[in-house]
Specification:
Two copies of one chain form a homodimer.
Chain A lengths: L2 E3 L9 E5 H10 L7 E5 L4 E10 L3 E11 L7 E6 L4 H13 L4 E5 L11 H14 L7 E5 L2 H7 L4 E5 L17 E5 L7 H9 L3 E3 L8 H12 L2
Parallel strand pairs in A: 1-3, 6-7, 6-10, 7-8, 9-10, 9-11
Antiparallel strand pairs in A: 2-5, 3-4, 4-5
Chain lengths: 229, 229
């Protein structure tokens, strides 16, 4: 099933539009025609079914036949990840995080971050593709922060967990509460002592992700996989 | 810390050798010299420390100063994964599986497998790199099978779990036993009904990996991340 992304908002109960690469894909790759069924999400909780009423490479118009509103997953989970050097690994982590149901992603320049080569446009496409492929209806935001300090300030009300090798605190003890969760993963080289202390002062707890040393993107995916049971 | 892989076996308590790309990396990239300390694993449970006594691009000889024998993780976990079309995603799953501590990897031609473009040489290098990077001392084998039938025959004594979307059986109920585990993940398109039935007849249980549809490589990593708590 092909699910498209629509930026339509007003009047979505009557009709919705596909534009840009969504329209191009619908028209050229899938060769949708007037009268065909089309599925879409608006990334804000709505699952839409419609009938194509007009189609071009720039724009597809569909008359809404079904609309389902799915509440935002609660409590939500934000993955905060120190920016790592290898862009493809970072993108992989972002893609997996979306598949696993993350609500928001906060990428930050960690004390040990070597290069900050984040391509936000690529990340947006990756997130969008993952949302569509996973049949999700909520589009996670990806935000970039200059330091962990800023992430902690932004998510100061969240229940905070920081992945760290040096703790023996098992993950099992950190059962999910009803609060919004912030999961923090460091870059290559891990978190600095400063960051660990800062997070601790903000009420963060340390958790171990197991006995093996994990790459940053593996730690991110592992963290989420365990939380989102 | 750079950890090398040695194929040395006999006499390893006295000395060990690095050859091929290991030697090349030691000699050229890291510029190891006589008298330098060098760390290695033999992939069979041994962690070695040695002093370089001779070095060339083809061969490094080290006199063993410390040797630690680590027992094989028990019970072991085998990841059985249906071969997926995109080779980079397959390789990623293999790399993550090794990082997460898998004992063996069984790649098989699933009923829904589209292409079988497995590069065993690349996989061997990926596994080796992941072992070294994760500071593991046991080198997981990667074997290729023609069908799930063969995997089930090979691992017939294992406690078997099959990831499947259609079950609501939560993962939490499937606590680890003392037996060797076989975790099965299907390719794109999932397992065929035939495969599900076959696995069931072999005593396999179905488990859900959560409510979102996961890509094959994400399912593999998620499965392992949850088991290896």
């Amino acid at each position: 099933m092909n699910v498209f992304y629509t930026e339509s908002d007003h009047g979505i109960q009557q009709q919705f539009y596909l534009e840009g690469q969504e329209a191009r894909h619908a028209a050229k790759a899938l060769r949708l025609r007037e009268g065909d069924e089309v599925y879409a999400t608006d990334g804000k909780g709505r699952r839409l079914k419609g009938t194509v009423t007009a189609i071009s490479k720039q724009r597809v118009v569909a008359s809404t036949t079904e609309i389902e509103e799915i509440p935002r997953p609660s409590p939500g989970i934000t993955l905060a990840m120190g920016i790592i050097k290898k862009r493809d690994r970072l993108e992989f982590a972002v893609e997996k995080a979306v598949e696993l149901g993350v609500s928001e992603i906060a990428l930050f320049v960690s004390d040990h971050t070597i290069k900050t080569n984040v391509r936000e446009d690529r990340l947006h496409n990756i997130v969008l593709s993952a949302v569509k492929q996973s049949l999700r209806v909520w589009l996670p935001q990806v935000n970039i922060y200059d330091a962990l300090d800023n992430v902690l300030a932004e998510y100061n009300q969240h229940h905070k967990l920081m992945a760290h090798e040096k703790t023996t605190q098992s993950f099992q003890n950190k059962m999910r509460t009803e609060d919004e969760l912030l999961l923090m993963v460091g870059p290559e080289g891990g978190f600095s002592d400063r960051e660990v202390q800062l997070a601790g002062e903000a009420g963060s707890e340390l958790v171990s992700l197991g006995k093996y040393r994990l790459r940053a993107e593996t730690a991110a995916v592992t963290f989420l996989a365990r939380i989102l049971s």
